[in-house]
Each structure stands twice: as C-alpha cells, then as structure tokens.
Amino acid sequence: MAGAQTVFDVLAATATRFPEQPFLQVLPETAAIYGIEVGEISYRDIHARASRRADAYRAAGYRAGHRVGMLLQNRPATFEHWFALNALGVSVVPINPDLKAGELEYLVSHSEMIAAVVLPERHAAIDAAARAGGRAIAIYAPDDPVPSIGVRATAHPALTRDTECALLYTSGTTGRPKGCVLTNTYFHNSGHWYLTTGGRIQINSGHERMLTPLPLFHMNAMATSTMTMLMSGGCLIVLDRFHPATWWQSVRESSATIVHYLGVMPPMLMSAPVVAADKEHHVKFGFGAGVDRRLHGPFEQRFGFPLIEAWAMTETGGGVVICDNHEPRRIGTSCFGKPGPESEIRIVTDDGGDARADENGELLVRRAGVDPRHGFFREYLKEAEETAESWTDGWFHTGDVIRRDTDGYLYFVDRKKNVIRRSGENIAAVEVESILSQHPAIAAAGVAPVADGLRGEEVFAAIVLRDPSAASLATARDIIAHCSARAAYYKAPGHIAFVTSLPLTATQKIQRGTLKSMAAELVAAPTTHDTRALKKRTA
Q1: Distances in Å between the alpha carbon of 288 and those of 124, 165, 262, 308, 322?
Q2: What sign has the CA pseudo-torsion 11, 218, 378, 102?
C-alpha cells in the first residue's frame, strides 16, 4: 500500500476504505472454546480498539525498541494488542502456548522482552520463566490496564518499513530456537506477494473470506493470512485449531472462499464418509503444503477445489514464495511449482556444483533485483555468525533438498538440515537429544525423522540404555513423561527403539544419514515402542 509504513498504517488505510467490512469473524465453536463473543468485528471497530490500546501503551511508556511477549492464542485480542504495539514501533514476540518451563525461560530471556500480555491462566508460568532468567517483566491479561514501564516519551522516532515488527522463533539445528527478526517490510511483502501472484490465486478486494486453523505464532497465519486480508479488505476467520469433525461446518458457516491447510488435514478429511454435501461450499482454493501426493487428486475431485502446494520459510517470508498456482498443475507429485520473476534460485549438490535436471540438491534462494534480501527476515537475533552462514555467497541456504525437472518445476525431496517437520512444527533433533540425555537411564540417544501418514513426519529416538536389561515399554513411557515435562508435547519421541549402539563418526558425532536409514528400518520392528498415543497436548 502506497505510503503505508507499518502494519498499523495498513489497518488505518483499509479502515478508511472498507470501514463496515468485517476484518474478523469468530465462529460459535471458537467462541465457546475461548469463552468470547460470537460475531464479526469490522475494520472500523478493530482500528478503534487498536487505537485506544495504542494510546494506553504510549501513556505507559512503551516505545520503539521495546519487545512485548504475547500469549493469547488465536483470539481477537492478539490482533488488538499487536496492531496497537505496532503503531508505536514496539515489536511483538508471539509465544507458543505449548512451550514448557525451560523453553519459556529461554524465549523470555533471549528476546529481552520488557513485558508480556498473557492469558490469566499462564501468568504464573511466564512469571516463573522470567524470574528463572533473571528478568523482571510486566505481565498482564489482555483486558487489564497496561502496566507502566517508564516515563512517557516526549518524542518518538519516525517509524518505517524497516522498523522491527515481530520476533518469531523457529527451531535451530544447534538445538536452541532462533529468533527471526521481522520488519514491517516483511509483513507488507507477505501480503503483496499473495495479492499479486495470480493464476489460481485470485483475491477480490472487499469480498474474500479466509479460514485458517493455523496458529498466530507462526508466519503463515500471522503474516501471510493476516496481511493478505488486511491489505485487500477481506475477512479473516481464525479457528483455535483444526477440528476435523466440524471443519466443513466451519467452512460453510463462515462462507469461506479461501482455506489454509497443513498436510495433516487432507487425510483426516478424506477418511470421513462421502456425503452429498461435500461440495456444498464457496471455497475457491486451498493454500498450504505437504499434502500426501496419493490424496491430492482424489481430494480435489471429491471436494471440488484445488489445493495449491507452496514452499516458503519463516526466514524467506514473502521475499521468495514458490507455489504451483498456474495450470497445468502437477497434481499428486509433491511439486510446488516454478519460481516467479521476483525469485532467483539455485539447486546445489554436496560438492557445491549446480544440480542437473532431476538431480537432487539443496535449494538456495534470493530475491531478484538490487536487494537479494528484500522481504526476508532481517537477522537471527544475537546470532550474527549463523545469519552470515545462512547467506553464504549471497544466497539463502534453505536446508531443503529438492529436484527440478526439465520443464523447471520443483519437487520437494527431503530436508538437509537435521530438522523434523511434524504437523507444521519444526523440531530440532539435537534439542530432543539434549532432553533425552538428561534422563538418568539413558547413556546415549539419536533422533531422526520417520514418515508418518497423518503428520508428515514423526520423531524417532534410538536409545542406548545404561542398563540394557531395562529396555521395556515401562521405560519408554517414563522417557516420554520425562520429555513432556521439559518441552512442548510434540517434541517427544513418537517411536522409541532401544539399541546397543548409535552410528558414530570417527569424532564421535552421530552419522545422521545412517541414523535416518536405521530409523526407517526399525520403526516397524516389533521391538520398537509406538509412543505416539502418549504425546498429549496440555496447553
């Protein structure tokens, strides 16, 4: 949007253009789960609410350079506080509600947040995390008066698109999550890409209704979905999460024209009995990634709309997004399209050379034009070396292994980085290994991804016990309880195999490729314990 610098500026412009159009719809099911009101919130109303909160924050001393944590789930309050803080140049740090004590302590300390707006039932957890990290922060509920943090500034710096807007954490291959610094440009560009990419993705200003079950602490919902609707005057329908039994009811009740999905969703929806109402909806397309290629075509035929497969990362934002949005699409092939004119890519083999057609290699990307980082994250917070390494030779190294066919279409193959992708969450294998190593019965542990028909990938742990005779289901259960008490539930192993040794290099490091092959062989072995049912969400 011409002239708009911040996300709040975009909101203000759209509130002037489409004051009575709904920005947000809360469905009855979501309202009941959260204990909030059902209905729609117009652009005029959300702008007024955010403006009032911005005045309160300004009076309480909040200003550019500050960071404020947000643990509000997918509630309307998330938008009110985010937009209000953005109006002052304050960066927000969305917090995953599934994080446990150690994870929260790291996030609160590393981000250097000065305050956190948090659901009342999570105040104690955030306070304990802050104290453990030696930080004194203001903690308050979304409807509480804004606590003062200092003297109100008499002058405020001009805010620009380069001003930090949010700090999103993503799993790091070294174990600790990395904080991706995202500017207003990142958010502007995420919406602009979606609005202009074309093909099967057509956005009509003031008319679209986008339904998403994805969390607002991830870039898809926070940046891509929100900014696309915000910039086009569309309505965003945010569910608390994906509920397969009531999904189509939500789609019809909301009159959704666009839905966002993860690969875990189509198998669940296809498993339901075929009914006459399967095509009774207004959906034009679904946008997501990771659909099982065997279900891709059957899903589209049954439900009557295309699933547009895409590739992006938190780091790349809208700077480089690649999707299969132009006909003829490569349905059922794990294809995610061709790069657009705004993107440049390389596919590089292990020896550093460019891969031939149909040869696997790591995907390297950058923005075409004078600024190769336009629309990307600014940096990994406090990780200058990792930031520089990720941009070696002027290309962003994605860690994703892909292949390109003779027509230029790209196909996802694997992950080069030691990261497990489970139901949309990135899990660092070394982080899980670190947690496992703290269990008194474990001498050594190696973690690798294994295929999972429902979640894409699952966490597999090969474990060497101090006492091999202790190998049992009871020990496996105790290990899961140990992990679940220390990290988000989804990071715990879904499969545990007790082994006599791990494949190691001469320098005693885990041979990742060999471990992954071993996991694929052992996952179905009768001696391997399936612990997926023990992974329970507690937030």
Answers
A1: 36, 24, 6, 6, 11
A2: positive
pLDDT digit string, tens, across residues 416-459: 777 888 988 888 888 888 889 889 999 889 999 999 988 889 99
Using H for helix, E for strand and C for coil, what is the string for 230-269? HHHCCEEEECCCCCCCCHHHHHHHHCCCEEEEECCHHHHH
- Residue 29 CA, distance from chain mean position: 23
Burial per residue of 66-80, b for 16 or more beta-carbon CB atoms within 10 angstroms, e otherwise:
bbbbbbbbbbbbbbb
pTM for the model stands at: 0.87
Rounded Cα distance, 210 and 141, in Å = 28
414 sits in which H/E element: strand 410-415
pLDDT digits (tens, 9 = 90+) for 479-488: 999 999 989 9
| Sequence-ordered alpha helix ranges (H) in 88-158 | 101-111, 123-132
DSSP for 2-55, written as a single string = TT--SHHHHHHHHHHHSTTSEEEEE-HHHHHHHT---EEEEHHHHHHHHHHHHH
The radius of gyration computed from the CA coordinates of the chain, to the nearest angstrom, equals: 23
Token couple for 36: 């909030």
The dihedral of CA 232, 185, 112, 171: what is its sign? positive
